[in-house]
Amino acid sequence: MAEPAAQAVAPRAMEPTRDLGATLPDLLEVLLNKGVYLDLDLIITVADIPLIGVNLRATIAGIETMLEYGMMRSWDEQTREWVRRSVSRHLPLAEDEEIVMRMAGGHRDDERHGTWRPGTVYLTSRRLIVWRADPKEVLWQARLEDVTGVDLRTERSIGGEDRVRLAVTTTDGTATLSAAAPERLHGMLREQGIGPAAPARNPRPESAAHEGSLWYQEQLASGPVWRGGTAVVDRAGGVTWKGALDQRPAVRLRAEQLLSVDVESGRTPAGSAVVVVRTPTGGVRFAAQDPGPWVRALRRASRAARPELSAGAGGKP
Fold first, then answer.
1. If both were cysteines, with which of 62, 180, 231, 267 could 32 make a disulfide (CB 3.0 to 4.6 Å apart)?
2. pLDDT digits over 155-183, tens only?
3. Pair 203, 193: CB distance under 8 Å
4. Cα separation, 119 vs 111, whole angstroms
5. 3 state SS of 188
6. Topology at the third CATH level for domain 92-192
7. What is the C-alpha R_g of the chain?
8. SS3 annotation, 58-113
């Protein structure tokens, strides 16, 4: 007796599956790091009548993964060239110098009372630069080959907030930079082979030796102007002053910069006494309704950093 012919088994349609343990971050990690290739033929029917057909061939992945597999290289080269031309209109670059990273930031000029100068931080294939667009000026720069170390340091702002700064050590000394994303910039510099094995952060600063309201005479092109604000003399002897609308301190002095503290007569919003702090670059003028505590705190800081100075320099409040 002949055996019945075997019936062909129709392939089962693909059915979606669901992993209850998978999350959105897992999906994003697969898409960005490994990528997904879609080869899809889709027919949409209504009442068994085919209405819409979709033929889809697509690759979805992170840009780095795309470039690694040789995709979108033309777009990448064109984009890099466009960015380079756009930046080179303002920031002078060498012929083969490329922008690796840019972000808002600034440089602390310790030679001018520790004043912060805002700008844009550029990490290029050759240099680390702090650039100000208006007026056009390189606030600070160093060749990567001259950078010997980079650390993250936590400082307390005059408003009492902790700020992470970037301390860059070069063959010429150490510079303090601010950045919108200091940890990211630090990581990029580490990838260049710069810096210690682990970031070093300073311990939290001690409480202030004296703080309160204080007027500061700012030197403008139109003439000196008194500004009200808050000042802090910390226990390390440093002095910072910040205006009510300032995001960062306008004055920052280290203890060793306090050469002398004098009291002079003058017209101020707080009275007739002007507290003059002599520094290597000139005098900084403050005023307070009760200047006595400020003078004593400033002189203690000056004596601690410079024991050879006389405690009685200048007039008495």
1. 62
2. 876 656 778 899 999 888 889 999 999 99
3. no
4. 18
5. helix
6. PH-domain like (2.30.29)
7. 31
8. EEECCHHHHHHCCCCHHHHHHHHHHHHHHHHCCCCCCCCCCEEEEEEEEEEECCCC
Which one is the CATH code of 208-305: 1.10.260.40, 1.10.287.1260, 3.40.50.970, 2.30.29.30? 2.30.29.30
Q: Which residues touch 8 (CB under 8 Å, ≥6 apart)?
A: none
- Distance between CA atoms of residues 237 and 256, nearest Å: 8
Report the candidate in 310, 315, 208 with the shortest Cα–Cα distance to residue 259: 310
Two structure tokens written together for 151: 């650390």
At 96 the pLDDT is 76
Amino acid at 183: E
Query: Which sequence spans correspond to the domains of the chain?
Result: 33-69, 92-192, 208-305
What is the structure's pLDDT at 315? 43
**Full DSSP string of the chain:** -PPPPPPPPPPPPP-----TT--HHHHHHIIIII-EEEEEEEEEEETTEEEEEEEEEEEE--HHHHHHTT-SHHHHHHHHHHHHHHHHTTS---TT--EEEEEEEEEEETTTTTEEEEEEEEEESSEEEEEETTTTEEEEEEEGGGEEEEEEEEEE-TTS-EEEEEEEEETTEEEEEEESSHHHHHHHHHHTT-S-SS---PPPPPPEEEEEEEEEEEEETTEEEEEEEEEEEETTS-EEEEETT-SS-SEEE-GGG--EEEEEEEEETTEEEEEEEEETTEEEEEE-SSHHHHHHHHHHHHHHH-TTS-TT-S---
Q: What is the pLDDT of residues 89-124, one digit of tens each?
A: 667 777 778 888 889 999 988 776 668 889 999 998
